[in-house]
């Protein structure tokens, strides 16, 4: 279980202070897929960096299965917003996916198997020997996902992973995430600024306010488990839910103004 | 698309042809100027005499010993400097406190011309190989160190955080993120240092009289064997060209990914 309690983060550089997060509290149960939606610049990346132990919060704490996070915890993988820069250009796709496994101490044969399986799973069979910069943006993002999946994490954090790909690729990748989640039983915290995406993907949506950032509301997504780009998005319940999320985010903006 | 620097094959072919023509022209001028009495033959013998002297030199064991001495001083000095600079650069570059602590010291030490250390070298090593090594090392070290520092500073924070999030060991982060990022810079540093190292090796031999081509040039000059002196100068020039060529080829071969990332044409 992932617990975020009273999380606050203030960036200090010289005498300039930016309060990126004011007070965040929420939990993600094991095996859950939670979407975190909030306007651009509200501190989503900051939150993920705190959760993944890459950044020390100013106050509050993050716990994974009860253990406080004070550095990157084992069993967690992050898919970064800047996926292009997160892949190593001096390594082939295979080596990119394999390296974290090597660092983790996974045996050679098992590594091979995991690399193969994960590349197959994201539909990148046969590109193992290519270099990341030889691939399209959508393919690069899938390599980043494959790398995270091959790592066999219990918790997967994804930071606006589809922000920079076209609508069609985006739809495919959304379905890919749902499918991987169901198959692997991982806990996923998925960050996005796209309201429709958050409702389509999540079992629950946590809405963040504009800065100074707090949790605006949480909403359970009671759509059927079997989702489909056409029918789910046309489902009246889907429309209701997305309207609800939209209203909340608008309300957050109004509150911020007054 | 072709990069403006590289040009297309036909272009580079004709460039090579033009270059060869230029060189032939130079040789012709060097042959004719002294023969026509435009310059004093004592200071610039005709190219053919220089060539003859070169052939004669190549037949003496002393020449080959001198060449070997120069190459040893050059390569050993360069190797020591590169090793030390890479190590120092990675340590200094990855520890911010060290970085700011050493910044001004480096800025002070770096511009000191190596030749200013000649008296110190003589004091320490006399006319031994050590003198040459000291000067070569000093000159080459800063070239590489500065580049390594640039390289380490160029590490992409996202790539580095990726490594951290996958719990890479400290060594893993250096080996797989820091080093590959710094490598192109290291190459630039080594290429610059290789040329500087040759200059310093010849200078040290020439001025101090430590064994090598530089010393032979001084000896030839003292014994008024002017064509031999020129022949040896030509040899040092050729060495310089070969070193540069090797460094560039190595760089291109090993950093194919890097050039491609920067959108240049790969060979
Ligand atoms: N390293 C930093 N130093 C200072 N301020 C920062 C730093 N990183 C982020 N910030 C500030 O914190 C706030 C939140 O940034 P963050 O990147 O977390 O937002 P985000 O919700 O991920 O935005 P986006 O949707 O555009 O990715 C912004 O105001 C930003 O300027
Ligand atoms: Mg962000």
Automatic annotation (TrEMBL), chain A:
Coiled coil: none annotated. Keywords: ATP-binding, Nucleotide-binding, Transport. This is ABC transporter ATP-binding protein. Gene3D superfamilies: P-loop containing nucleotide triphosphate hydrolases. The keyword Repressor does not apply. Residues 2-235 form the ABC transporter domain. PANTHER family: ALIPHATIC SULFONATES IMPORT ATP-BINDING PROTEIN SSUB (PTHR42788:SF13), TAURINE IMPORT ATP-BINDING PROTEIN-RELATED (PTHR42788). It comes from Actinoplanes flavus. GO terms for molecular function: ATP binding.
Automatic annotation (TrEMBL), chain B:
Residues 67-247 form the ABC transmembrane type-1 domain. The keyword Cytoplasm does not apply. CDD domains: TM_PBP2. Its main location: membrane. Pfam families: BPD_transp_1. Keywords: Cell membrane, Membrane, Transmembrane, Transmembrane helix, Transport. The chain crosses the membrane at residues 12-30, 71-96, 108-127, 133-153, 182-208, 228-247. Signal peptide: none annotated. It is found in: Cell membrane. It is a multi-pass membrane protein. InterPro entries: MetI-like (IPR000515), MetI-like_sf (IPR035906). Belongs to the binding-protein-dependent transport system permease family. This is ABC transporter permease.
